[in-house]
Design goal:
126 residues, mainly alpha, 2 domains, two-stranded antiparallel ribbon
């Protein structure tokens, strides 16, 4: 009589899968409760064995579809030699982005040198 009551209490306390609602097997229940220094060992302790495999497969597929983002330095299209925007030697105005890119030639292809690389667009035209 006592054993039947303990078995009924054990079944009543058996975890239920958060995905499909089925009760955990004894093996799954033990695996879900295992801890390593107080941290659960199982990656999905709230899911049954089948739902866990579906979740892990979906996560792996999502990871394969999205490549890791590039760091900020690798996303730049051009690398500038100057850490600060250059200024015109005549009028002291800061170079525009277009003028800065025209003066600061980057890349592998040989490009003709600017006629007045230290002057802004306005002073070059004068």
């Amino acid at each position: 009589m006592e054993a039947a009551r303990e078995a009924a209490q054990r079944e009543a306390s058996r975890p239920v899968c958060a995905g499909c609602g089925s009760r955990f097997t004894d093996e799954r229940w033990e695996a879900a409760e295992e801890t390593d220094w107080g941290v659960p060992v199982d990656t999905h302790p709230q899911l049954c064995h089948t739902c866990k495999h579906v979740a892990v497969a979906a996560h792996d597929a999502a990871q394969q579809e999205q490549p890791e983002p590039l760091p900020d330095w690798a996303q730049q299209k051009r690398f500038m030699r100057y850490t600060r925007r250059p200024r015109c030697t005549e009028c002291k105005a800061a170079f525009t982005d277009e003028r800065w890119q025209a003066v600061e030639r980057t890349g592998w292809e040989p490009l003709p040198q600017e006629r007045h690389p230290t002057l802004c667009q306005t002073c070059t035209q004068e």
